[in-house]
Amino acid sequence: MEIEKEMKKVTLGHEFGAGAACLKCKDKCEGFELHFWRKICRNCKCGLTEHNVSMNSEENKKVGKLFEDTKYTGLIAKLKTDGIPGYQGNMVTITLPSPTTAYTVSVTYEWAPPVANKHLVMRYIELLPPEKRPVAGSEGAAYRRQQMDRQLPEHDQDPSKCHELSPAEVKQMQQYVRKCKDEALGVGDVMLPEEMAQFQAGGQGAAAVGGGSGGSGLGPKSCHHCKKPMLLGEPAVYAERAGYDKLWHPACFVCCTCSELLVDMIYFWKKGQMYCGRHYGDSEKPRCAGCDELIFSNEYTQAEGQNWHLKHFCCFDCDCILAGETYVMEKDKPICKPCYMKNYAVKCTSCQKAVEPEAQRVSYGEHHWHAEPDCFRCSGCTKCLVGQRFMAVKNCLFCSVECKKKVMA
Questions:
Q1: Do domains 185-284 and 361-408 have the same CATH topology?
Q2: CATH 2.10.110.10 is the classification of domain 361-408
Q3: What is a single Pfam family found in this protein's UniProt entry (predicted)?
Q4: Phi/psi zone of residue 269: left (φ > 0), alpha (ψ -120 to 50 degrees), beta?
Q5: 3-state secondary structure of 191
Q6: Under a CB-based contact definition with an 8 Å cutoff, are residues 303 and 313 in contact?
Q7: For the chain, which residues make up each domain, given as ranges?
Q8: pLDDT, tens only, 316-359
Q9: d(CA 54, CA 136)
């Protein structure tokens, strides 16, 4: 019954953000129109986060869904309100006395660690790279939104966001999501190492913070990522899944694959490594290069060093299926031959015809020629120049100074 319920869900994803202007392409994009399964705009091929769409409500729903039904009780306490899965992103405004004037200074952050000590929160954010600090309206806030979309794809956890899964695929995906929540998912805790040591030395570690690795609790005082020492009085990030004997500098709490800051400190711990949601998924299942979804089918294809659903190995421009067909890779995207000839093929400077992808050609600067006697030849004496020395002047070719003088005179 649960599988049937997932199969019957209808989402309004194609209506969300419809018509929004592209911040990257400007007037070249007619407005956001979601491709049926590629997770990009049909008009400009950019993603939703690159369009002028407020993502806060969708992000909150997505993260709330991620933590729904989790057995990780510490996270439930942090992220649930009145028993309803939700996530507010913890936007905060912090007001502190100015170090240089008698006035106070207020800063609003789109996200900050849920710590009562505002001075500790401020110091945590100060230890992040300046361009990644989530100050509202800043470059760092935009970075956080991009990483929220990149690191936590909603189609990695919700079958209703995927394209035409079979009942067997839905079942496999549900098992994957359950495993992910039970064995890997976590949220970092910000704390002073000396306070953590006091908790553990006093035997309060398990009760206060949900467990640890045992022992005295004093543990190493060097960052698990960079191995450099932690400074006294500086906040550290802890991960319950990893054990509280390990700690990280705020700027070192990153994915082991993409090296990006773990958005909102949401992590996935596996075999001694810290992952973002996307790369944890990649470590468990192949990912389709066409639709960006994890592949839960036993049958899929591999091409150009990437994995593809059989139905998604298609031309990036027209969506025609490419199995058994000639295609060309353009910017790591497969393009069918007709679309390549129409949109990408270079024109021969001599005959002005498009150069087919399988044809041999000669390129010099911005000019291209068919590597044939009728096209790549001297403009003076018509000698074939394939494999010969030549000189190029504008769009003309010459085999010698004499031919050049004769034609250019």
A1: yes
A2: yes
A3: LIM
A4: beta
A5: strand
A6: yes
A7: 185-284, 361-408
A8: 999 999 988 899 999 889 999 999 999 999 999 999 999 999 99
A9: 13
Distance CA 226, CA 253 (A): 10
In the block, tokens 């790279």 appear at 129
pLDDT in tens, 361-399: 999 888 999 999 999 999 999 999 998 999 988 888 999
Own/partner pairs for 227-236, CB < 8 Å, 24+ apart? 230/193, 232/194, 233/192, 233/194, 234/123, 234/127, 234/192, 234/193, 235/120, 235/123, 235/124, 235/127, 235/190, 235/191, 235/192, 236/190, 236/191, 236/192, 236/193, 236/196
Ramachandran assignment for 265, one of left (phi > 0), alpha (psi -120 to 50 degrees), beta (any other): left
Determine whether domain 185-284 maps to CATH 2.10.110.10. Answer: yes
- Spatial CA neighbour of 153 closest among 316, 303, 40, 321: 40
Residue type, 338: P
**Distance, CA of 354 to CA of 76 (rounded, Å):** 60
Q: What's the rounded Cα separation, in Å, for the pair 399 and 110? A: 65
Are 354 and 346 contacting, i.e. CB atoms less than 8 angstroms apart? yes
59 token code pair? 């992000």
Residues 6+ apart with CB under 8 A from 105: 95, 96, 97, 98
Beta-strand relationship, 306-308 and 189-191: unpaired
Residue 64 token pair: 């709330």
